[in-house]
Write a structure and sequence with these properties.
The structure holds two protein chains of two kinds. Chain A is α+β, with helices and mostly antiparallel strands. Chain A is built from four helices and 20 strands. Chain A has two domains: about 170 residues, no CATH class; about 140 residues, Cyclophilin. Chain B is an all-beta fold. Chain B has one domain: RNA polymerase II/Efflux pump adaptor protein, barrel-sandwich hybrid domain (OB fold (Dihydrolipoamide Acetyltransferase, E2P)). In chain B, the strands form two sheets. In chain B, strands 1-8-6-3 form a four-stranded antiparallel beta sheet, with no helix packed on it. Chain B has a four-stranded antiparallel beta sheet with strand order 5-4-2-7, with no helix packed on it. Chain B starts with a strand and ends with a strand. Classes of the chains: A alpha+beta, B mainly beta. At the A-B interface, β13 of A face loops of B.
């Protein structure tokens, strides 16, 4: 049982929850950027949490299935077809051997996910099937899919069947301006109070430099408080003495074009961290695209923890409703 | 009625393969289906934009190095 890749799309990769435990030695986790869409896709097709799925961006792949199976497309709002017939999103769909999944023009969001019963069966590398393309490891041959690839599928899905459906009110919407909740710190004191306010007041535009490594934004210039250059720090006013970067952290080299670091990013360095996008809202970020607008909304640590708690509970409820 | 080629991804549109090269297609040139008419740069990769119909380049809706969005009309082709 396998998938034949006829057209890979733009940068379609195998992803799971990520490769954890090696951050301290400079190893980012990779893994599905939109964790909610990824987890729900697995639940729809009867996979255990953590099975590997496909993450695409902007353009969906064209995939032929060599055996009968069950799939689910989640994430972005994009027309998906099986042999030319439109299939529903956020719902498990039966596929017959020889049928081809294809995608039309993206209508909302940015990243569709394809979950397949049994999961994509690529070797685990350091405990994960996620692709980390920058160093060419994990996933399928350490790279994005290419035409002619054949992906093996697992066979341990539990009672996969068509017709499992996510309730409409649980399907994320893709708003005109995405609001990303932000835990402010560790180095927000480096910005002038005016600039910190400007940072959260600006509707930032996603530049073409927006991928699994990070998203770069344009929209305003920020000023740093004048200071004496500390020992070990660079001369850019945005520099601090090197430190670890949380996944989701925001830095503004030179005071222009803030960058949110994502799951394939460098794990540390010498730029001030103004704040960190809460993990739940990285899902929303993953569904924004070049040209979209984004606003950062400050929250405190208690709110951030409550947001994560609520999302975990929601996923548990969905998993139990869909099983 | 002309045919319009639209952007399939967001990004920066280029009419030339490199800054010093000639444009892929000159104004008024004839293109065949599948001919490259430009590039869109997104996520640090360049993706070719191909004509999905044959004809003559009639009118550009975007300039070189414009940022484009998905579905945005790039160029009109007269049959």
């Amino acid at each position: 049982m396998s998938i034949l890749v006829h057209d890979p799309g733009l940068e379609t990769t195998v992803q799971d929850t990520g490769r954890f435990g090696h951050y301290a030695i400079g190893f980012p986790p990779s893994g599905a950027l939109d964790s909610f869409a990824y987890h729900v896709g697995n639940a729809l097709v009867g996979n255990a949490p953590g099975a590997a799925a496909l993450e695409a961006v902007y353009l969906g792949p064209t995939l032929e299935f060599t055996a009968d199976t069950v799939i689910a497309v989640t994430g972005a709002d994009i027309p998906a077809t099986l042999d030319g017939e439109v299939i529903p999103l956020w719902e498990s769909v039966a596929v017959r051997a020889g049928q081809t999944l294809a995608f039309g023009q993206l209508a909302g969001g940015a990243r569709p996910y394809v979950a397949v019963a049994g999961g994509i069966d690529v070797p685990e590398v350091y405990g994960s099937r996620s692709t980390y393309t920058l160093v060419g490891m994990g996933g399928f041959a350490g790279r994005g899919l290419a035409a002619g690839d054949e992906l093996a599928l697992g066979d341990d899905a539990v009672a996969p069947r068509a017709g499992r459906r996510v309730p409409d009110d649980a399907v994320p919407v893709h708003p005109e301006v995405a609001e990303l909740r932000l835990l402010v710190g560790l180095h927000s004191y480096r910005l002038t109070p005016d600039s910190l306010e400007r940072f959260t007041d600006t509707a930032w535009k996603v530049t073409p430099d927006a991928n699994r490594v990070g998203y770069r934004y344009r929209g305003a210039e920020l000023e740093f408080v004048p200071r004496e250059q500390p020992f070990g720090a660079g001369s850019d006013p945005a520099n601090v003495t090197d430190c670890g970067y949380p996944v989701g952290s925001v830095q503004v080299p030179g005071g222009v074009e803030p960058i949110v670091l994502l799951q394939d990013a460098v794990t540390g360095g010498g730029y001030a961290t103004l704040g960190t996008v809460v993990s739940v809202d990285r899902d929303r970020l993953a569904q924004t695209k070049t040209g979209d607008r984004t606003r950062f909304v400050p929250v405190d640590l208690d709110e951030a923890l409550a947001i994560r708690h609520d999302r975990t509970a929601q996923l548990e409820r969905l998993r139990s409703d869909l099983s | 009625m002309g045919h319009t080629i639209a952007a399939r991804t967001p990004g920066v549109f280029y009419r030339r393969p490199s800054p010093d090269a000639d444009p892929y297609v000159a104004d008024g040139a004839t293109v065949a289906e599948g001919d490259v008419i430009g590039l869109i740069e997104v996520m640090k990769t360049f993706r070719e934009v191909k004509a999905d119909a044959a004809g003559t380049i009639a009118r550009w809706h975007v300039d070189n190095e414009d940022e484009v969005s998905i579905g945005q009309e790039l160029v009109e082709i007269d049959p």
